[in-house]
Amino acid sequence: MLFHLSIDADDPRHVAHVFAEIWGGRAFPFPSVIDGSWVALAGDDRGTMIEVYPRGTELRENGRDGAFGFAGPAHRFNPVHMAMATNLDADTVIAIARREGWEARVCLRGGVFGVIEMWVEGCQMVEVLTPEMQRQYLDAITIANWERMLEAQPLDQAA
To answer: How many CB atoms lie within 10 A of CB 79?
Structure first.
């Protein structure tokens, strides 16, 4: 189970507020890692949170005190993405994204479940799942289904 994750953004405060709006939660400053960081809290019973750091923040191991944030190079694209749930409908989520100047569209992943693919600040992919999309996802993404998929399409394990 995932409780929180972190991403970087050009405007962490703004991005955290938009995520909080999609969740129906709240955004707050998060100065404990690096100044200018913000968090979006879903307000759910799991403490679900997204930490949003200034673009270029790097987390590095710091001995006995744990991770510490450093300013690094500001890369615009990365392999990190997430799927987040919302109680909003697709039209509302897309309207929020468009208001922010972010691309957003409904996509069907593997012909199995839908997502709203939203491009935060034009470079960070976030998949937003409406209640219907969440049901599709939960029905599709199981260990048994994954095993069936791999049996139907064997992969070259040596690769």
So the answer is: 5
With H, G, I as helix, E, B as strand and everything else as coil, classify residue 71: strand
Both structure tokens of 42:
């879903």
Low-confidence ranges of the chain (pLDDT < 50): 159
- Each domain of the chain, given as residue ranges in start order, spans 1-75, 76-159
What is the identity of the amino acid at 9?
A
Provide the edge-to-edge strand list for the sheet that holds 104-109.
82-85, 124-129, 113-120, 104-109
Alpha helices by DSSP H, 6-113: 12-23, 90-99
pLDDT at residue number 58:
82
End-to-end CA distance of the chain: 29
